[in-house]
Specification:
CATH topology: Rossmann fold
Strand order of the largest sheet: 5-4-3-6-7-9-8-10
Number of domains: 1
Structural class: alpha/beta
Number of helices: 10
Largest sheet: 8 strands, mixed
Number of strands: 10
CATH architecture: 3-Layer(aba) Sandwich
Bound molecules: S-adenosylmethionine
Order of helices and strands: HHHEEHHEHEHEHEHEHEEE
Helix content: 40-55%
Length: 262
């Protein structure tokens, strides 16, 4: 953990509240807490994905990757073991469940993901609404090849993984999806890139769109990007759960920001 992340996490633990929705006056946010944050999932729901994650965690083969992102602070080599990526880069536990429960509750029809990695989060999102059209963007060819194996192993049929830098693939993905009902932005964690992706996605958002940004507390720059997103006049509800930030565009409700214990 870096020092910014430690101090932001401590601040979050002191200031966050509303874990059970008490004293929340927004019916929309109250419902979100009850039906998404507090949703109970049967282990069997994700068994196929978690079985495959286990396989990846035991895969000691190496691949050469192109790292387009802010990069790992611990590993500067381009040669990575699959099990290292599986251990350090993928959504797990309650954060993977959150993705699933958000999609399950709001049933987005067009889903975009920036940062496929080994397609574990992709599988959670896609399985929550198999009718959705989903595009997931990944910069590394070798990682995308493993992602496609994951999708096959998990029986996911509604996702197209597109390979290339986000700056080269995002525009056409947006044009193809036409509107963005749900986007998970989980790659290239720098302030400038995060704001750039937000600005590009924004014109494709509607009142029912949901954006979820990963690692908003990872660095000062990421947190500054998050604060600018929260302040955007189109955003009506924003929720900081420390690791991630959720953004909603619902109309007819007073603009409000929440810090919620998750
Ligand atoms: C944190 S991982 C994604 C994890 C995945 N969403 C999950 O939760 O299981 C980020 C991925 O984004 C990719 N990436 C980072 N920056 C990128 C960029 N500028 N263009 C394309 N891909 C990028 C990396 O190669 C990496 O696989």
């Amino acid at each position: 953990m870096n020092t910014f992340l430690i101090s932001k996490t401590l601040r979050y633990l002191v200031t966050s509240g509303h874990k059970y929705g008490h004293r929340i006056h927004s019916p929309f946010v109250y419902d979100l807490i009850q039906s998404v944050f507090r949703a109970k999932n049967k282990k069997s729901t994700f068994a196929v994905i978690e079985k495959h994650r286990k396989k990846l965690l035991h895969d000691s083969s190496t691949i050469t990757i192109e790292d387009f992102g802010a990069g790992s602070k611990n590993n500067t080599s381009n040669v990575r073991k699959v099990n290292y990526i599986a251990r350090t880069s993928l959504s797990q536990g309650k954060y993977a469940h959150l993705l699933y429960n958000l999609v399950k509750r709001y049933q987005p029809e067009a889903i975009l993901e920036l940062g496929t990695s080994l397609a574990i989060s992709t599988s959670y999102l896609a399985l929550a609404n198999p009718q959705a059209r989903m595009i997931s963007l990944e910069g590394s060819k070798a990682i995308a090849a493993i992602a496609n194996e994951t999708l096959q192993a998990c029986g996911v049929k509604n996702v197209s993984v597109r390979v290339g830098k986000f700056d080269d693939t995002l525009d056409s993905a947006l044009l193809d999806l036409q509107t963005i009902d749900f986007a998970f932005i989980d790659g290239n964690h720098t302030k400038e890139a995060t704001l750039r992706y937000f600005e590009k996605i924004l014109p494709y958002c509607t009142e029912r769109s949901i954006l979820i940004f990963d690692d908003i507390s990872w660095s000062e720059g990421m947190y500054e990007a998050w604060q600018q997103i929260v302040a955007n006049q189109n955003v009506s509800v924003s929720i900081d759960i420390c690791k991630q930030g959720l953004v909603f565009f619902r109309k007819g409700i007073v603009k409000q920001h929440f810090v919620i214990r998750y």
